[in-house]
Amino acid sequence: HAKAIPGADSLLIARLGMLADRMSVNIEMPSQHSLQLLAPDKSKHSILTPMSYIKGRIEENCHDLVKYRHAPKFAPAGQSTQMIIGASPETDRQILNLTEGLYRSYNLKRVFFSAYMPVMEDQLLPSLDTKPPLWREHRLYQADWLLRFYGFAAKELLDEENENFHPYVDPKCNWALHHMEFFPMDVNRAPFEDLLRVPGIGVRSAQRIIAARRSGILSFDGLKKLGVVMKRAQYFISCRGRKLPGLDMSRQVVLRAMMSVREAKLYGTDIAGGRQVSFFEPLSVLGVGAA
């Protein structure tokens, strides 16, 4: 894995790409404004130009490999980039929209996120006692996975009313809880793309469902054997038009089922004036911001 610095000469990139499996040009900041403020020696143009060149060389090399099996390979594992999270005021929505745009425009294999860790005192940066936003970094990686493998668009996961991810529920569960009109989904009829949107059903279990129902009608017990996480999925699915009997569909019960053990412990702590907060309260009540 080799990194090309912004403004790197295309001849050097061409030679380096023949030696490295993967290349990257780190975008560093999620916006041009933050880049000018915190890294004035870099510019959007100096970063995107080599990124575009690498994309072109990879595409050109793919055509060469079709014609000539033994042609030398240029960065066969593709290119990636990285941005720092928490050093500047951009919201999760801005970061996710940028991530989606980079995938579309430059055919990146990965966008990496790095939580900012304060190492020096500066009025332009968070104070030294600021904790690295590791949980926020984790949520962005989860959302990135949804963009790449689950068919979600950035605009579906965050909008103007919800600019940051919920701290206690992962992005897929968060989407499902706010779009109950799509559920319950009959696992015996739903297409593959729709199954991927059900909490508790991943790519592999969705593939197993599609394969298994060709041989017969699926039951709730059968779904467990296929790897479906029923603790989550049971609230969003049906079999032959019927839901699991005796299911408690109250908001708090469903919400807790969507959480990991660690998230449930955090959710149950005294973080809002001595009471347990509701999932549907604004993030400002939880003290959640962009940083």
What attributes does this structure have?
two-stranded parallel ribbon; single chain; 13 helices; alpha/beta; disordered C terminus; flat; 291 residues
Descriptive notes:
41% of the residues lie in helices and 7% in strands. By secondary structure, it is α/β, with parallel strands linked by helices. It has a 4-stranded parallel β-sheet. A two-stranded parallel ribbon has the order 5-6. It is flat and about 65 Å long.
Quick recap:
This protein is of the alpha/beta class and 291 residues long. The protein has 13 helices and 6 strands. Residues 270-277 and 279-291 have low confidence and may be disordered.
How are the elements arranged and paired?
Layout lengths: L1 E2 L6 H8 L5 E2 L7 H7 L5 H24 L11 E7 L6 H15 L3 E6 L18 H16 L4 H4 L13 H7 L7 E2 L5 H4 L7 H10 L7 H6 L4 H4 L3 E2 L12 H7 L3 H7 L24
Parallel strand pairs: 1-2, 2-3, 3-4, 5-6
Helix pairs in contact: 1-3, 4-5
